[in-house]
Amino acid sequence: MKYDVIIIGAGPAGYVAAIRAGQLGLRVALIEKSMVGGMCLNWGCIPSKALIESAKFYKRIKQDAATFGIDGIDTTKLAFNWKQATSRAQSVVKRLTNGVSFLLKKNGVEVIHGEARITSARTVTVEHRSLETDNIIIATGSYHEPLKANLTSGKVVELNQFFTLPEIPKNIVVVGESSIALELAQFFALADCNVTLAVPGEQFMPLADIYLANYMTNKLKKDKINVIFNADKAADKGKFEGEDLVIGSHRVKCDMIINSKSRKGVIPPLDVELKQESGFIVTDEYFRTSVDGIFAVGDVNGQSMFAHVGSAQGLNVINYIKGIREPLDMSLIPMNMYSDPEIAQIGRTEAQLKEDGILYKVSEFPLSANGKAMAEGNTDGFVRMLSEEKYGQVLGVQIIAANATDMIAEAAAFMSVESTIYDVAKTIHAHPTISEVFMEVGFGAVDKPIHL
Question: 205-216, pLDDT tens digit by residue?
């Protein structure tokens, strides 16, 4: 049987593309060697966010219960229950993965379990079967580079092993600079662990505006997280001395290391030559590889490590196969970080605008002046907007807030239609809401905010 499209990898890039292809009447095979949902649903985005939410809830009860009028809680007896938290996370994972499997079946997608091998531009083998197709989409994801240091076996844990730990260690070292590294560091701190974050470079969140990075650096210090910058070479030469991990001139207590270093693409077995750079498959603006009829979407092409970007790329390729040629605007990708408070960003950073010689204005409004934020007791953070100086087009938005990852969608919507600061200011927002801050920051860019 010949397929219209064979998709390798059932993570957010692959399964979303498969569902859409099925909806459009294409004959689809989706090949997955592990579990439907991929890294994101099973060991990344979803379980990590469920655990982080448990830790935030624990912190909120411990710190704020009495303030909110809740009596009878002996905070000295409160403890974070790792087993229950991971059990809850896994129940969320199971519900979502079952839902994805249902949607694949509903839309006529044939799911094949096994490791795929691309034998030509039109054939894929899996489980002793040779499948013919007009199009191949590689959506195999990525993996964290292993640490180079020769460390005690069992003390270094990869992200996909983290959620199955029988107990939570007391002293943790997280190695990495990405969003997941920061999220994990804060999670452990919220759960009463002693945490060291070993950052390879001069700042974490290298894609974020330095303004956000500096804010969170100060927040980590407030959370008593030990941050070591420029730790790349030192971490690669790290060694254990008794119960201590020695990283360059730093000595820290360490029961376990969580590896969240930079990622590389998972390249499937190939009998064709695809152009690759720095461990990723090279693609053009339509996510076509160097071989006609083969596409690569999601982490494996190295353009972004966010699941929502992989899904958008997968949908874009299905459109291309159906004859709709429209490049995806990769400049309007929301960057979300589920920290405490959350971080979100879209569009240009100040450094990028300065490098391109674009004259711009900055408008910022603090959540501490927002009524809903006060009522909820979540006043840390702000909304910050960068706009073109002459005509007022919004060029970038940065948010630090308890629900920043939800709030950024409004910025994505108005930036996608090239809105100006005037459009943002005159948009009527319901009251009281956190989203009113957008109106305030819009007025701040035009003239002056109302409530400041």
Answer: 888 999 999 999
